[in-house]
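Our consortium's second objective concerns turning raw sequence data into structural hypotheses that experimental partners can test. To show how far this objective has progressed, the report includes one record in full. It was chosen at random from the queue rather than selected for favorable results. The single chain below, 164 residues long, was entered without modification.
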Amino acid sequence: MASWWRVFPRAARRYPWPTNLLLYAGLFSAGDALQQQLRGGPADWRRAPRTVLVKVLCDQTVGGPIALSAFYVGMDILQGKDDIFLDLKQKFWNTYKTGLMYWPFVQLTNFSLVPVHWRTAYTGLCGFLWATFLCFSQQSGDGTVKSVFIFFHRKEVGDRPPEK
């Protein structure tokens, strides 16, 4: 047991992303096993990894779409638009796919490059950038990063159509 305490910090420094991923999965699994014990039953350790996977999949397949839907519909309600589902219908899939590319990259860099004491701030900054992107997409974009570049390029050239 004592050797584990020496090996883990070394592994975390050398392989921070997989180590943190395993730690996260282990903590979720242990939490699931603990709640099983608190309910009076023996811990089913085969169930715990499945539970972690299900929670991650639920976050990506349920939590993300619900949050995006609430954002687009909520903004349209607040802006008094006639069709409060129009932005959602037009931009949801692009935004969802963009988020599926953005957030794993954020977490990969967070756990592999960012020092522990800056991780919350880094995630907050990335959340701020995501919120800015969502607001841009709702106002001017189509839910893709490409629309951001097109928007800024047009501003740079003075909204002129490209010359032939």
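The partners drew two points from this record. The helical segments are 2-14, 16-38, 47-78, 86-112, 119-139, 145-156. Residues 85 and 160 are 31 Å apart (CA to CA). Both points have been shared with the crystallography group to help prioritize constructs.
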